[in-house]
Amino acid sequence: MPDEAIGSVAALWRYPVKSMMGEELNAARVTPRGLAGDRAYALVDPATGRIGSAKVTRKWGRLFACRARYESEPDGSGQAPPARIVFPDGDIASTADRGIDARLSRELGFAVTLASTPPAKLVLESPALGTVPESDDAPTMEFPVLNGFFDLGSLHILTTGTLDHLRALYPEGRFEVRRFRPNIVVQTPPGERGFLENGWSGRTLAIGDEVRVRVMGPTIRCVMTTLAQDDLPADPGILRTAAQHNQANVGVYAMVERPGRVLRGDAVRIAPSP
Asked: Which listed residue, 31, 135, 203, 223, has the most CB atoms within 10 A of its CB?
């Protein structure tokens, strides 16, 4: 039985520093832990052991206004190369700078450290997933961080058909890729709408000639999808629409079965079930 064609790679995104804006790519190396260099760095509050995440906007929200881009291409074989951080005021620093912890601490208003290796007992603080917090002081929960600096899966995939479906459900909202921070955006055929990824759990996707990934399950969204960034306004309706129509799930997490190189335009197919 042949593979089932579902689309092609429309975009590739990598986020060198967790919760900062990332970089769009034309090609990337997919390693056993996801796109080479993705979430290779993160900020940590040494006083609490919590990882820096814009999910808690009152504390970490300014991370969302910073941008990170690699100074050279990661090969995925070891320590990621330094990343260049552009701060909201236009200041530029490197993750390799001796004073980077002090610069990041000034930006956030409290002491932080930049980590490239997760410390022991690292935890993620987050409001309840799938809901819009009533205020910045809404109660939060803590989750252990068990997969590097990722919340859960190390590869996040999203289709254009799902975004088109969400736009139809809530025309006032701007459902743009950057709100959802995927790694791979799959261009699906025109007019094919719905929560297309819902039926992929447990299936294997073939991406290009080399890469194979196993879909773990849906990605439940959080308050980060509603935050302002660049010209995108803050919009709680983004998450509320996903919650009302698909249990707040948008896209899927996947694990890498066979690494390799992926290019914009590569075909994406569902492998037949065994």
From this structure: 223
